[in-house]
Design a protein that fits this description.
The chain is an alpha+beta fold and 200 residues long. It is built from two helices and twelve strands, in the order βαβββαββββββββ. The longest helix has 17 residues. Bound molecules: succinic acid (SIN) and fe (ii) ion. Fe (ii) ion binds next to loops.
Length: 200
């Protein structure tokens, strides 16, 4: 992928690390259940999601935004330590992420091209972790409708989107359902870490 600031750390996590992370995420989802959000127009999204951290990313008929509570009213669980350590090891930042968004892609799920731009300070990178089935990740430039490039992300891959890539359009066209045995019921998890507010 030749986009400035896009970094793919291929197989950054070994299988033991991946299993540990899945267990951490399972605990998060027990405290803050996964939901299928709808868009502002009431269209259900194909991914299920939940969050950990000070704020979580949600979408409903009022639009999408960060919220300090789960739609059911509970606080979001803290971001698991293992994930915070990974963030620090890779980004070198002492500033911790505010939001750890957990997306689950079941069979047929996808994510349309979008920019991550609901945050205050784009000088902080976005870091994502892929677990489970392969996902076809697509990235373009900072304008909608431009040329795009695609890459298959596999379990254990970590992606850093900084610099030019921080505001680049990106999405997931499809997954190869059942390509990994990490998750007993199949599917793909993507964890997205973001600094949401500019001041620590
Ligand atoms: C996203 O950008 O929202 C998800 C990226 C991914 O699933 O790899
Ligand atoms: Fe995104």
């Amino acid at each position: 992928m030749k986009i400035g600031g896009f970094e793919l750390l291929k197989s950054y996590l070994n299988s033991a690390d991946q299993l540990d992370l899945v267990n951490d995420l399972r605990s998060v989802a027990q405290a803050a259940p996964m939901r299928s959000p709808v868009t502002r127009w009431g269209k259900p999204m194909s991914v299920k999601m939940t969050s950990a951290g000070r704020v979580g990313w949600i979408s409903d008929r009022r639009g999408y935004r960060y919220e300090p509570q789960h739609p059911d009213g509970m606080d979001w669980p803290p971001i698991p330590d293992r994930i915070l350590t990974l963030w620090k090891d890779i980004t070198g930042l002492t500033r911790q992420p505010d939001c750890c968004l957990i997306n689950y892609y079941g069979e047929g799920a996808r994510m349309g091209l979008h920019q991550d731009k609901d945050e205050v300070d784009f000088s902080y990178p976005v870091l994502t972790i892929s677990l489970g089935d392969d996902g076809l990740f697509r990235m373009g430039g900072t304008e909608r409708g431009g040329k795009t490039q695609s890459v298959w992300l596999t379990s254990g891959d970590v992606v850093v989107m900084g610099g030019e890539a921080r505001l680049a359009y990106h999405g997931v066209d499809r997954i190869r359902f059942g390509s990994s045995s990490l998750l007993p019921d199949g599917g793909r998890i993507n964890v997205t870490l973001r600094v949401v507010e500019g001041v620590s």
